Amino acid sequence: MAQEVKTTCPYCGVGCGVIARVGDDGAVSVKGDPEHPANFGRLCSKGSALAETLDLDGRLLHPEIGGRRAGWSEALDLVAERFSRSIAEHGPDSVAFYVSGQLLTEDYYIANKLMKGFIGSANIDTNSRLCMSSSVAGHRRAFGSDTVPGAYEDLELAELVVLTGSNLAWCHPVLYQRLSAAKANRPEMKIVVIDPRRTMTADIADMHLAIAPDGDVALFNGLLAHLAASGAVDRNYISNYTSGFDEAVAAASRLDLPALSTATGLTVAQLRAFFRLFETTEKVVTCYSQGVNQSAAGTDKVNAIINCHLATGRIGRPGMGPFSLTGQPNAMGGREVGGLANMLAAHMDIEKSLHRDQVRRFWGAPSVASKPGLKAVDMFRAVADGRIKALWIMATNPVVSMPDADAVEAAIKACPFVVVSDIVRDTDTARHAHVLLPSLGWGEKDGTVTNSERRISRQRPFLAAPGEARPDWWQLAEVGRRMGFAAAFTHGSPAVIFAEHAALSGFENEGRRDFDISAHAEIDGPAYDGLRPFQWPQPQGSAPQKKRFFAEGAFYHPDGRARLVAVEVPRPRSANDAFPFTLNTGRVRDHWHTMTRTGKSARLSGHLAEPFVEIHPRDAQGAGISDADLVTLESPHGAAIVRALVTDRQAEGNLFVPMHWNDQFASKARIDALVAPVTDPVSGQPASKNMPVRASRFAAA
Ligand code: SF4
């Protein structure tokens, strides 16, 4: 009998609702869920091709130890024994989990509880570190909490939408569809796209500002200085709800217009036009994504943007606010449970003894890690230099996706004990594992995810678990039990984990923290099965879900005030004679991350069939490169070979290469092998943009 199941797309942070239909013959088809508030029935190319990615080719179906098939008990016993031995001999910080925004919140919750509460280390970090940790750090500096102040609807209600470091058309396509439709209905709405490339998103822009890489702090500092000088700030909002305005304006005013022009690569006329548009438009939303976050100055960029919204009081009201767009389906859920090495569960702060004590008592844990753990780049450095001796990688492929990927691969190869939980048997990372554990994929998983607008949705199973694959949370709980923590890991279902997570969010909270979903603390199996998408917070009692935060202050710093942060323009990370081009990396429309799923769909691969480098015609001519030539790209860290795409959409001096391909899909195409392991000093997020490289026509040896 055919059945339809409501679930959520596993790709980007828009978090679209999907209806999966399983026919009498077992064939699966998908369509958008018209009732889901993220997409109202829309899907993008990736979402519509989900049914084409569900075959079992290449699936990891049984646990393996050293390349041979093993039973679950033997594999879990070995993982528990090796982790316990490392902890006994070298201390809790000798082990680490590297997890993923692909995990469901329930998986993340158990991973975090095991590492921070019972192993007693905070060495759990996530590939979301590569995606949005600068936004988290910027939110916490400004608001005292990691709170996204608005909702998707604000993009439709705005009179001006500024998209900076965001190729919305390709990276958050359904949100782009919503924005395009809103602009078609209200042609007076203005859109500004700030990006070194003239992307597809720029096609609907009234103004495209081809900013120099890392010019964002200068641009938004210049905007703040302009707003202050022209009296276009909200004095009441500033004095009632914020602090730091004078210092932020002083820092922002250090560059005059000609100097701003040099720092941003924009003309004085372009700067004036943008500043004037922002100044004279009441309803402004500024969306930002990886072009802002993936920078050595990512957190400062985020705060430079937020400063402008705080100074004008344009936050928390319909059609207004800064808006961070998360890359992954559950980057936000990971933040909620403390999946980052510097955070605790339920948006609590690992560096606050009160919060550590609350979590410890709630969990009944012996002790909770008392200091932040290693963030992604530092974690793999610690693997490389032998400080980490046992590493568990879940649902991610760092040998392709981490900066300095060759060095990361060497570190993993040399690590004494590596566990990989995945759905794919032969990823670039999995082939170096001592133990492989088969996990559930989309359509088999059961749990929740949170999208960029704080909306929690269910991922529901509609396919049987293949082979011996089991949920990630179950694998973690079984290892925790075998390590001697049986009483803390008795969860029999994701519903029980979600209820515990919800209860912790309300535990001794009383409004001191933003994240509170304790209305669901008593949820049972049937209610969890029927859970409809909702935006947090949903505290216990009658308070409704909150669409927006901060229209009337009530920030989460102890004094209730937001902070405008004085940020300085970073020194340019320039190209040089040896490496004369600036490389930016990013996504393409139809592939996802390292292509382990989207690579299965011929339709999706038909959009862009191979890795490429976008290069400006004059740069191509200067380097002796013609369209469709093979090009060697080199940095001090590594090399890749990709196809030339000569286009004036790319600014001169800059190159763009997609991040998806790996050595399985094309020879020598792991672009992150070129990227330096440079990180933002506040967030620890790697700078995957603005990398000096050289390019030459490929010559076969
Ligand atoms: Fe999935 Fe994102 Fe596309 Fe929505 S926009 S269907 S969440 S990939």
Automatic annotation (TrEMBL):
Record key words, sorted: 4Fe-4S, Iron, Iron-sulfur, Metal-binding, Molybdenum, Nitrate assimilation, Oxidoreductase, Plasmid
Protein name: Nitrate reductase, large subunit protein
Domain 4Fe-4S Mo/W bis-MGD-type stretches: 2-58
One annotated GO biological process: cellular respiration
GO molecular function terms listed in the Swiss-Prot or TrEMBL record: 4 iron, 4 sulfur cluster binding; metal ion binding; molybdopterin cofactor binding; oxidoreductase activity
Catalytic activity, EC: 1.7.99.4
Residues of the full protein shown: 1 to 701 of 885
Source species of the chain: Rhizobium meliloti (strain 1021)
Name of the gene encoding the protein in the UniProt record: narB
GO cellular component labels: membrane; oxidoreductase complex
Cofactors (names): Mo-bis(molybdopterin guanine dinucleotide); [4Fe-4S] cluster
Family according to the record: Belongs to the prokaryotic molybdopterin-containing oxidoreductase family. NasA/NapA/NarB subfamily.
